Amino acid sequence: MDGNRRGVICDWGGVLTPPLRDGIRAWLHADRIDVEHYHEVMRPYFDDSCGGENPVHALERGEIDTREFERELAALLRCTHGGPVVAEGLIDRMFCEFDPVHAMYEALREARDGGAGTALLSNSWGNCYPREHFDATFDTVVISGEVGMRKPEERIYLHTCERLGLRPEDCVFIDDLEHNVRIAEELGMTGILHTDVGTTRLELERFLAPDGDGAPPVPDERAA
Hints:
44% of the residues lie in helices and 10% in strands. With 224 residues, the protein is of the alpha/beta class. A 5-stranded parallel beta sheet has the order 3-2-1-4-5, sandwiched between helices. The protein is elongated, with a radius of gyration of 18 Å. Residues 217-224 have low confidence and may be disordered.
């Protein structure tokens, strides 16, 4: 294998879609769910202070049934109109506003056309992905619930590198969550914390440049 080959590993929600908070906010308003109460319910799952097995982590690994999770979550939430939250289809409704960011797909396809290996690495809630874009963009797709691992577990990063046939040191990892990026960097990858398409494209071009050093540009370079 060409020793100069590079790999690009990219998250889905918040990178290939608009920011997570925007999509979730749209769902909360559409389903008329009490927003403040939703954040109170979900906070222990996301800061991992719930004690015992975290049901969100189990869902992302595919260890619990999606419909069971929907029923349990719906029972915890409340609607502003006083009625119950509909459990059936809750996750599909939650993610229905996660439209593709075509400029990011284009950047990944350009990297692939230039010889880089490309991979999607996403934590799934059992939701449906817009897979019509995947074949033209990715060499391999790693969905947490399909492989029984989740970010930020080191093994799912290494598994993705293996699927690309590359070492972590030869890969860049793009994600909108800092702790996910930090683990990738600890494994030897170059991390890009995604905030907007323009900045990520510049950093990706730097990483893929034939004479580049594999490191994202320093802040003054990003602003230039």
